[in-house]
Structures
1.
Amino acid sequence: MKRYRNLAVIAVVTTISLGTFFTKVAMSESKLPKFYLKTENGDSKYAKDLMISAGYDQSGGSGGRSLTITTDGSEYKDRNSMLSELDSDYYDLKKLDHLRKKERNFMRGKLSSSQFYIDKDYAWYADVKGGKLGGTYEHQNNHFKMYIDGLDLHNKDRFKFKLDIPEEENYSYIYVQDVQLIGKDLIVTTYQNKTDVVKDKTTNSNINVDKNELVMYRINVNQKKIVDRTVINESSNDQNTHTHTDIQNLIQDSDETVPSKFDVYKKVKLKDTVQTNGETETEELSNEVIILNLETGKEENLNLSNEQKEQLMQSNVILDKENLYFITQSDKDLSVLKYNLNNKKVEGETVLIKKVDSNNLSNYKVIDGKLYAITNSTENPGKFNKDLIVADLANGQSVFEGKIEVKKSKGDPSKALKKLQIYDFKVK
Amino acid sequence: MNRYIKLVNFEVNRFFKLYIGLLIIVAISQFVSLFLVKSKYMQAANDANYASSMKATERFISSSGLLTFNQVANHLLFIGPIVICIALMMFYVFIIWYRDYFGKNTFIYRLFMLPTSRMTIYFSKATTILIMVLSLLAFQLILLPIEINVFQQIVPSELLGKMSTIDLFMNSNIFTMILPSNFMDFIFRYLIGMGLVFTLFTFILLERSYRWKGIIFGILYVIAIAGLLLIPAFIESYLFGEDFSFYPSEVFYMELGLFTIIITVSILFSKYLLKNKVSV
Amino acid sequence: MIQVKNVSKKYGRKNVLRDISFTANKGEITCLIGINGVGKSTTMKAIMGITPIDCGEILIDDKKMNHTMYENITFIPDTLTMLPSFTVGEAMQFMKDFYVNWNPERAKELLGFFRLKEDEKLGELSKGNAAKANLLFGLGLDVDYVLMDEPFSGIDMFSREQIAKVFTSHLIEDRGVIITTHEISDIEHLIDKVVLLDNGEILKEFYTEEIRLEEGKSVMDVMREVYQS
């Protein structure tokens, strides 16, 4: 029997050691605090489909844990697990997660929510693919093609086709910004980059000059053809003043899949100065909000006074359906100005959102004319508030106030709340 | 079953001396790394005169951070022995067969003349590899709390970032590779490892059956397996064209299925070779 | 009875065994004779199933070789079949662990007969003692058939005497023995049957008693005849 001593000892010690380890891991998981979203005020219907993404900072240098919180409770993401990552809810919009479950084949490989167009009858997706294996691109001749895929949500008819892109050979990359269905045509707006090699007048050497273009493609779905291609706007470069203008898609869209006949973006003027240490510093000289009317195919300017435009240069612009919301964050408060794109004018007065703690604003979105805001604030030493406020942008009044609470905590809940940071959320 | 356990016991006993040696190397090297990390940090701390005042301490901590065990776990002398163990075990996958053939040893005669199926021999060798690898992991798990404890004794408490063993596994270090804290991931990873062992065994048996030709067959076999595992990528790129991609879960299940086929084929192939083609 | 039927084997391009057939019976000592490299060891290993054959059939008591038969047939090659680090005692324990037919009393008897000590390491034994230890591990099994490959080669004279004694003792008795050697002088008087091999082929298969009675020849005479023709 003593011949078996070595094997026995090894087997027993190994089993106990590994068993203890995994038990401890499970136990420490179960010790993590459970949170939930509690309705403090207002209509709890706003919280019903909400999923808040948060981070919990376990002390002891083990880093943060990701978790999601709903009104029912919280779920921690398994950090070191590869298996649990498979087929998890991937999209930032719940509607896309649902669509993936229902129409698995259609949703295959479609990863970007901004490239979707979804209304009650159809779902369309547009993508531009090209370049070499491995995802690298040349300055030119990348053989870009546009891939259109549509689904009739009622009878499940599928419309899938590939299009040649005119002049694609001149571009170093083309990516799809937005997809809309205007009438019977699919409008795909893209952001494209040309890299030209020019001689720098000062140094007399060859430099790469980037030119960015915003291009609109009108596609006849029945004929499966691109019937129009227009360069809507492009960046420019003034070597003499070392300034360049660029088109930036800084407009937040709460839901990029909804039908909209407007595309909104900012045109910024930037100045580059080369520092003494050789690095280039870029500063923004001015910016302008530009509206592209997809029906007419023409750009429109904002119908605002110069004074208003000046004030709103520092605001965050959010597009929600047919309205632009200019959200200004100051030291004390959060104010919102609504601009109706259809009517081409400001609607109402600047609205103050009082309930939102402007200083500790972590994230906000505009959905259906309501502002959803997440704050992480410390009232006084020892009291930590993680709030979610939903305010009606018509009058600034809150329609929902929610607070993250700890479920059945044995000790002081504020300890757990202190380590929690909420930073994003997902609604239906 | 009885003879299987006896064979496993036999193989484990043969390896035991080397095994103890490995444990000692790991322990010593890791303890040395402990002290080295502490010294280096304390050197910087003393250079900054951290102890002169509260403010100085705070300043030092905010610039250099607290000293946590994770820094030890990333030190060369900590990771080094682990890597050596891994390399050695991979090497032993081959040695566990070849040592019965070469040297003063023609023990392979005895093994092949045992009144037990040759697959028992095959599985006992595979089991031995698995047991040794898992026990090395277990040893590391036993060593860690001791190391952490010693570490926490020698580092001044104001500069110490406390960490338990479990906390260490939540960090990013070598353990995320060799000991995932998620149990299913762990099982999965080591199943794949065993699959690799079975494949290598088939390679070895091909060589023992056909010598030089066997090595070529073995290489072709490994290439075939690699090719098989790449089938999902192949299907995605060539069969369906540019506008098709698999969901990660689909790729996972396909690979799992292919993997199962590969393991089964490796084992059956090994069985055939052991019964019909391998000579002493 | 061990039946070798039309067995052929190639090592690379070399035809080591060419269509050989012979039988060895229980209760008889059969000797495979031939010079080095003629295929004797290969034949033994083929019978034992530890070297594969290309074609032909080998039957033991009318059954094809499988692993359960290792309780019934043993092979004593001219190399050590145990770990050199094992002591004699540990090796005997190993045999006991794995073989049901291991006979510890007989093994102890052999131990005494060969004057080996249990605590001696196998790797440190002299050539003669190592060969005797090998024999011990083979003969300690209650098997019907014992195959021995060159049991006398390179062994000192006294050990050879001891080993030769085994053949007349009860230790062999009614077992079937196949022995290979190219040196038959020690055991010529013990052999019942001879199989002469040359270049992978069987030149002659005969019973020593019959040849002696019918033709008045000794084994050596027949060998001279056959090999020099």
Note: Residues 5-30 of chain A form the longest helix (26 residues).
2.
Amino acid sequence: MKILVAMKRVADYESPAQIEAGGQALAWDGPFVINPFDAIAVEEAVQIKERQQDVEVVVVAVGVAEAQQQLRSSLAMGADRAILVQATPPWDALAISALLHAVVKQEQPDMLLLGKQASDTDGHQIAEMLAERMQVGQATQASKIELSGSKARVTREADGGLQTIDVDFPCVITADLRLNEPRFAPLPAIMQAKNKPLQILEAAALGWSGQTACTCQQLQLLEKKKKGQRVADVATLLQQLKQEAKVL
Amino acid sequence: MAKHLIVVPAQTGKLDAQIPRLLQAAATIKGQLHGLVLGDDGSSDTAHALASYVQQVYMAQHKRLQHHLAQPCAKVIADVAKQIEASHVWSVGSVWGSETLPRVAVRLQAGMVSNAHQVVDEQTFCRNVWAGSVQQTLQINTAIKVITVRASAFAPAKPLSKAGAVQRCPVDAQPCGMHFVQFEPVKSERPELTQARVVVSGGRGVGSKEGFAQLIEPLADALGAAIGASRVVCDAGWVPSDWQVGQTGKIVAPDLYIAVGISGAIQHLAGIRNAKVVVAINTDDQAPIFDAADYSLVADAKQVVPELIAALKSE
């Protein structure tokens, strides 16, 4: 079987964001990493490959040339080959999902794995949009995936509880944090990854016009809350919560 | 003038408390309010409850919509939106809304904004990115717009003086690639985390699984509060992972949030940004949680939490 994992290059979540391009783009000094949710998707695909015979894991990223670093990291984790769809922001989820759909048509995977959201834009739209473009089923926020024959049984977070569903192949599955713990690639694997195939495609060649349905008007750093007050003991705390904050 | 389509998955009993807040968000843009309720034969309760708030409710009833699976629901929503020529399609940014509306957006070739907390005008919406530290103002350029809303950011709308009409709509729900197996509801006597008025959360500073049970649970009981936790505590298995508060867990918006033994990682702070009053209890007076707190108590939780419980109980 073939698993296609889609991933995004993001700034490490602890780096403070800056705003540039006239208030319309986020910028970071780095370091850059695989979106933590997508790293879980890569790990899951690699674990399936380790459990079963004849599994090929292909990772794909849409983004700038530097995203090759994160694709190499995925290869070091155990993916077989990588594809970069080179594109320059601004982009939106409709555009990215259309580009991924173009890759899906070429690759014809049985299963797509992605993180449930990107840690920078928190959009959680792309996987679902891709599933709709493919006209296939989806299982989002998966905490457990069991494969049997040509379907996957997925336990996932739903509103008010845990839902279990079966999805027929091909399907799109997104990873929740509790699905697994991504591995750190050992040095030999990092060296080996340098020789694994990494193909670069141009977004324009896959039909992207550069048009987006959504445009960012403004980005604004939210001010930190003003410093609160120290209270000396439990009695003072309760008194302030009642009399000043009026929440008790 | 705008024509809003508010989509709601049917549930038994009364209308989800987030729906009137969603309606308030939509009503910021002047226009007609229409509702769409999706479910099986038992969905008419929700449809009639929703009719108190909108001019017209469409009821999509079909056995394939029973479990609100995203694939068949998205088709029905897009069909109705086209048929009534909706300009805006809205839902709560719940798990269901977040997984279903992106599919609707593709079907309608519509731009989409997730988890809006402010409606600026008919095509402009604000939402947070980068773990809640940056606000993004997005403009949707397509004729139809799809929006999920962070309901807690809006006040609940009031019912209309005259309830709207309810009508069934034709449903074309084809067999699909998703098959429901089972649902295990979370059983809790406590209020739901994202809707609770008071939330008590515990972090590594409570010491252990037993410490969590001995400190956080009785404090929550004394306050009638929901219980949350930091990611470390969930990852360590001290509490179920759906108790996690933060960017990668639940976003809460209580009147009072009490963080006990939580250091305050950026991703946790993103989850409590909408709390009105934050209390932090931590032994480390340099903990970042104190920068986000209105009231800070530098103390050992094991000592002060029992005092707090005793004081609350004696009232």
Note: The mean pLDDT of chain B is 94.
3.
Amino acid sequence: MAIRERMSGNEAIATAMKQIHPDVFAAFPITPSTEIPQYFSSYVANGEVDSGLVLVESEHSAMSVCIGSQSAGARTMTATSSCGLALMWEMLYVAASNRLPITMALVNRALSGPININADHSDSMGARDSGWLQIYSENNQEAYDNFIQAVRIAEHPEVQLPAMVCQDGFITSHAIENIELIETEKVRAFVGDYEPAASLLNAAEPIAIGPYDTVNYYMEHKRQQAEAVKNATVVLLQVAVEFEKMTGRKYGLFESYQLEDAEAAIVIINSAAGTAKATIDAMRAAGKKVGLLKIRVFRPFPMNEIRQALENVGAIAVMDRSEGFSAAGGPVFAEVRSALYASEKRPHLINYIYGLGGRDVTTGHFEEIFETLLKIEEDKQSGEVYRYLGVRE
Amino acid sequence: MSYSFKEAMNKPERLTGGHRMCAGCGAPIAVRGVLRALKEEDEVVIANATGCLEVSTFMYPYTAWKDSFIHNAFENAGATLSGVEAAYNVLRKKGKVKENYKFIAFGGDGGTYDIGFQSLSGAMERGHDMVYVCYDNGAYMNTGIQRSSATPRYAETSTTPLGTASQGKQQFRKDLSQVMVAHDIPYVAQTTFLSNFKDLHEKSEKAIYTKGPAFLNVLAPCPRGWRYATEDLMEICKLAVETCYWPLFEVVHGEWKLTYKPKSKLPIEDFLRPQGRFKHLFAKGNEHLIAEIQADIDRKWVELLKRCDI
Amino acid sequence: MKTKSGIEINEQIRWKDISPGGTVFSAGSAHHFKTGDWRTMKPVWNPETCKQCLLCVPVCPDTSIPVTSKARQDFDFDHCKGCGICFKVCPFKAIDFVKENK
């Protein structure tokens, strides 16, 4: 029996963490993910969980503590945003290469400078090469559901990789919406017990972690790590099937919304997908064939699946809520375009950089974008590929 | 427990040979000495900051450590071990770990005084039950002998080279041991290698078996960086202590105790002269540089005596 | 040194077989690596002159003076790097320090 509640995205994550009941939680506060360690600390203070709580002195230390703790056989979690993620950047790579299934709530916020506390995806996009699994969430329900699934995916013996579950700062993290929670016993049964492959605290078999790899070994370790990321695609879908059985909510590598017969579509991540869906509903009612693809799993990148979903659409706009400063478009655009390269069909593909530093995007904006795309499809001309939305020219 | 030298030497070794430290390196001597203070039946997890010790003792697939060991990065041995200790507390309570574990981090002066300082400070402040051992060889040795805040004044290093505009490192050494005392932790001690290693052993034992955070600063000479003949390591340590360059003391719950007072304090020259990194100080006309060093040593020695109520 | 599945770890190991994350399960495996060939000088122990004071034992960086039943044994020449600290420290001149002949 689902529990009907209403809460912010931050509280949803904290609730998921409480229900999963990790062995150790280590974090340093940063807006807008601050509430997660605050909620968790209150759970500890109230005796609702007996997890080890390590209130570190920086995000770099937060990830360092997580690595130490997870290596010692403890299920460990953390939360951060923006510069916090940037500060732990060095350690993200180590967590992944050490094959530690740490789970992190990443509340998306723009990277400095200038300093800005609002939502954009520059933080998690900046970490896309770190080896972490990246799962994105449109709303509080998805954040909650994704986090619970993330623990299972990360700890799977064929994966053993850390995972970050992302949601938009303030827009999702602070907005209170309805949510369906799962009973705690069901969550516990779903994630199960953490059975590490090895632990520093196994007296029968002491281990050494974190070697110096010479030229002769490093590449084999990396190739093996890459294989684990490939395995994650399969595991993600398996876990989603189990999750659907438990909750009735269906998840995949991405969500296709009115995409099957769309002539114009956008590719988008996180909360703005909700805004776009409202536009799509209105335009569909007026007979326009528009749709969207909302990427849920960005790492691993569902190259073939995205190609298959998009290649029949005439004109596509890839929405990037971060700049890669490649002078040729954003990171999501680059990867989607790469996916479509293998297709014989060549949809017209353009890119919009939008929403940087929390800049608002409205249904009006999406209506304009869809009209632009429909025109592109009609004229068979993309025009300018690398575009900006919502900036004062 | 009173120190039985022979009993201690008879214990099984926790650090094997076959590591890649230079011949005559002080760091593994420190490690062997500290680990010897562990009870044989106690388990330990050792964390290591990147540096000479870590790179040389854990080069895939060879590890010189008989116990569980984790290397994470250069600047986070303190935080890393905090995580292991936190996990241990939880898992012990849950009955998933049954043995008694101790937690010891080793870092060079680079990973401790400088880049690892914040991580160390946080770990000590949070009160984790662990020991942080700094093997202080006075420079970033692993990357080629660059200056650290532990490098003594006027030492020649690869980033404080000698030249017409430079006589070596400009600043005096940072007194990290004092900074650690200011963290209000139960035990801080400064030690090095002397005769039968009683000083190092007893301090290591106290550090390990005092509940809460403990910090040990061990002077660990580096023949390559200090430029002396490898066989002279013990003599160099003795001179460091007898000249009061490296005083031996411990601070137990904030109370300062001098653990060795030289019968006759030797001039600092005696410590400087055998080391190639100070050779330039003995050139004609540089006497005032040595005098500066001496004055600083003297001032700090007097302050230390005052703190120890002597 | 083997992986968990029993495969020897050496420079021919394939990516599928290498230990995940570089974790090593054989504690103390460095013992198998011989550093004795680093020597240019060599300590020579004279058991008759030796008073078994054991002052040489803690000063060895390479754990190359084994102790059994509180008595030191001959040097572990597989690992001794010939640094000479033990030679200098011996109060009874029971250790000589000579050129290594390869």
Note: Chain B touches chain C through 47 residues (CB under 8 Å).
